[in-house]
């Protein structure tokens, strides 16, 4: 396996975890400023990690 594919898979998993955590925060939100900041930060970072990981996996050619 290629190192870029491993890194892409790691980024994808981090993105999925971050998006799941953002969903949990969204469900338990009470309207506080801290909750909204946490939701926004984890949502944006999760999307960035997820998209970057998927893109890295798709563009890396598997040569053996």
Protein described:
The protein is mostly helical and 64 residues long. 81% of the residues lie in helices and 0% in strands. The protein contains 2 helices and no strands. The protein has helices at 3-27, 33-59. α1 packs antiparallel against α2. It is rod-shaped, with a radius of gyration of 15 Å. The termini are close together.
Task: Please report the total strand number as a whole number.
Answer: 0
The structural class is mainly alpha
Low-confidence stretches: none
How large is the share of residues in beta strands?
under 5%
Helix content: over 70%
Span of the ends, CA to CA: 8 Å
Descriptors:
64 residues; mainly alpha; 81% helix; 0% strand; rod-shaped
Write the layout of secondary structure elements.
Blueprint (H helix, E strand, L loop, with lengths): L2 H25 L5 H27 L5
Brief summary of the model shown:
With 64 residues, the chain is mainly α. Helix content is 81%, strand content 0%. The chain has helices spanning 3-27, 33-59.
